[in-house]
């Protein structure tokens, strides 16, 4: 079973994303900030990370930089999930190692499309 990590300081976003990701048979864990997420990744590297930009302690970009420098940190597909619509910020995230981005608010269809774009096979989806 593939694994996913949701990194967002909003409990609501984590809950909504978890429900969506579990429908595609992903084993989901979550963290409310980048520091906690990095510690989780050091224990078990997930296959997919849904990553918020603005968080306390360590923001999404700092987390992404640290993740990609970690052994095995190149493996996860990282989807930045943000309200930030500045093209420069999105380009910075993609240049920094993100695989894709999702604008908040998002729905199941948007998230499924982005997961497919980064390589989650359609056949893994639950009915």
UniProtKB/TrEMBL annotation:
Keywords: Phosphoprotein, Transcription, Transcription regulation
Modified-residue entries (4-aspartylphosphate), positions: 52
InterPro entries: Bact_response_regulator, CheY-like_superfamily, Sig_transdc_resp-reg_receiver
Response regulatory domain residues: 3-119
Top-level taxonomic group: Bacteria
Pfam families: Response_reg (PF00072)
Protein name: Response regulator
Species: Methylobacterium brachythecii
Gene: cheY
């Amino acid at each position: 079973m593939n694994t996913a990590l949701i990194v967002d300081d909003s409990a609501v976003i984590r809950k909504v994303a978890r429900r969506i990701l579990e429908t595609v048979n992903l084993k989901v864990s979550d963290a409310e900030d980048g520091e906690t997420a990095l510690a989780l990744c050091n224990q078990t590297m997930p296959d997919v990370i849904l990553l918020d930009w603005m968080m306390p302690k360590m923001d999404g970009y700092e987390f992404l930089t640290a993740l990609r420098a970690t052994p095995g940190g190149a493996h996860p597909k990282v989807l930045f999930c943000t309200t930030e619509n500045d093209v420069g910020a999105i380009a910075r995230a993609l240049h920094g190692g993100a695989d894709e981005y999702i604008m908040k608010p998002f729905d199941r269809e948007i998230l499924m499309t982005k997961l497919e774009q980064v390589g989650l096979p359609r056949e893994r989806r639950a009915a």
